Amino acid sequence: SLMRLSQTSVLDLEKGLEMRKRVLSGILASEETYLSHLEALLLPMKPLKAAATTSQPVLTVQQIETIFFKVPELYEIHKEFYDSLLPRVQQWSHHQRVGDLFQKQASQLGVYRAFVDNYELAVETAEKCCQANTQFSEISECVFSSVLSLPALLYKPVDRVTRSTLVLHDLLKHTPSSHPDYPLLQDALRISQNFLSSINEESTPRRQSMTVKKGENRQLLKDSFMVELVEGARKLRHVFLFTDLLLCAKLKKQIGGMNQHIIIISEGLYDTEDYTNDMTFCILTQQRANKGSKVMERLKKKLSEQESLLLLNSPNMPLRVHNRNGKSYVFLISSDYERAEWKEVIREQQKKCFKTFSLTSMELQMLTNSCLKLQTVHQLPLTVNKDEDESTGLYGFLNVIVHSASGLKQSLNLYCTLEVDSFSIFVNKAKTRVYRYTTEPKWNEEFEIELEGSQTLRLLCYEKSYNKAKMNKEDGESTDRIMGKGQIALDPQMLQGKDWQRTVIPMNGIEVKISMKFTSREFSLKRMPPRKPMGVFGVNISTVTKRERSKVPYIVRQCLEEIERRGMEEVGIYRVSGVATDIQALKTAFDTNNKDVSVMMSEMDVNAIAGTLKLYFRELPEPLFTDELYPNFAGGIALSDSVAKESCMLNLLLSLPEPNLVTFLFLLDHLKRIAEKESVNKMSLHNLATVFGPTLLRPAEKDSKIPTNPTQPITMGDSWSLEVMSQVQVLLYFLQLETIPTPDSKRQSILFSTEV
């Protein structure tokens, strides 16, 4: 066993040293690119210097020295480093040393100090010279346009030095602590970190700011992906908020495998309703890498497409902006927590006085170039974009008890909402009752929240507004005021036990006490075979309808009737969880055939009734779409040909057992009526499909139906996500069909029977 352990250690060591070579090869490739950028910068410097001593200079000697300050020295440092490192990597052995080269390069960071200190002046001088000097502008355009713009090239050394520690971190990670290079690389890292810290202490970080006219500092405050509503159509955007303007980037697909930076200027400048500064609207390209095997890529592409649809169709909370000419823009956000964050940072900037200004084309070019460097959110929140070592989140059910709140300074009408991330999109999942006029509300309400790759729980505390006159007429939303908001990471280690975990979420001086308990999907989402002859929950639908002598179970009819009566305009109906105790009470009442169930329902929160209906479908021993036909539905929805898909999907639907079919069609009509009120209840067909798809289709078998490549298996998280997305797409397909054709008289008698 010792020999086996020794062999494993040697293999691990060899693998680590091989990775070290790969890291160094990557550094060499990066150095080559960087040297080419520095060469491009230096190309016009000599002729400009030569012309400066003639009677017709293009630029003065002082202007040349300012624009190209320390660039030759930086080129020499990196050329020497590259020329020394290349032969060592080419003649690679596990004993090869490179630490001395990195240590020497780190000791020369003083040159970067001088460059960084002069950077803003260099850009400003180049900008002024381009505007005032046609000849220099033409030279710049001719020389630099094939590579990058002059400001973008001048930014390269700034970007390079801020990344120096990342390179050393990567190299140290794959260098054994016993290797002679290890202490040298540690020393180089220490020097680099101290250098960057000193720059950050002296000025605003360059990676988060850029120069504005008159020496003002433009800093990136916030950026994220949002959905913009353009003439009724949803468009995905990357929005950047700076201290004095807002920039909106349109995501364009990669063309022909090349990363193309296409910049188009949209008409008009715009600002937020309460924000008095000009904002610029322009378009950037989003870059994506192409990795992995064909099989993996096919599966991940499918998952990515379906998650992108979810990302595009889920948001429904408007963030409205407009310009002084009255042209308005609407961005949609799925989380009130995130919308509040955007409003807060904008209001903070509103307090500061910025003069109205317009951007020159060069300033706009610089700004758009900088966004690719400054962005804090680099990729769309899709499963395919997650790192391999990144947590896939929790799948299952989270029971949360919202106990009480303290720290309020005055008596208010208060309620809380709970948000969790579902497939990386935060949505509201639960809402407490309003606790009237108190400084210490005690809700003590329990909610069961389904988790789908969730990593964070957010809690918002609102003051309820009963003044209907304050209703936002344009958006149909209430003006309930957010009193506080906070969040907590859903730590799998903390939640792995069966006991309740008590915690406190602090928010703006208010503290909310909650308890949490998690049940993984292996136990909570597994369908169980019927174990009781009576009752309705966990009993086959055919058994229930036969016993009741009905075509649709009584529980389904009663719940839908009550929701149609008073829940059609409830915001988040079916998505927002009801109180768990209310749902359990209704479950017991239906199971025991309690004659007072309709009275109970009339007195309960409508979300509890919606939750009871979802629980009924979730606890069916077999899904409504049946285990037998489920793989066929999953295959049918993946068909490319629309005619073949329609034929396949309709034939499968009409093959369902009679109680399943009639119940589904009864529910389908109801869900379509819900979606007709989307402007009020915020539940689109896509949102309803997301909620009900897995509930109606998830098979009884535990194992995924998604095939994997055994040599490069798709992760369990990906497999689960892909299966859930397929279930959503199946239901969405039927929701979007205007009518369900019924070819034979037998089916027609079922479909059009009023005896439900």
From TrEMBL:
What does the UniProt keyword field contain? Cell projection, GTPase activation, Guanine-nucleotide releasing factor, Synapse
Matches recorded under Pfam families: C2, RhoGAP, RhoGEF
GO biological process, alphabetically ordered: intracellular signal transduction
Q: Where is the DH domain?
A: 19-202
Gene Ontology MF terms: GTPase activator activity; guanyl-nucleotide exchange factor activity
Read off the InterPro entries from this record. Abr/Bcr, C2_dom, C2_domain_sf, DBL_dom_sf, DH_dom, GDS_CDC24_CS, PH-like_dom_sf, Rho_GTPase_activation_prot
Which Gene3D superfamilies does the record associate with it?
A: C2 domain, Dbl homology (DH) domain, Pleckstrin-homology domain (PH domain)/Phosphotyrosine-binding domain (PTB), Rho GTPase activation protein
Assign the protein's first listed, main location to one coarse class.
other
**Keyword Metal-binding, does the record have it?**
no
The record's annotation in SMART domains points to: C2, RhoGAP, RhoGEF
Q: What is this protein called?
A: BCR activator of RhoGEF and GTPase
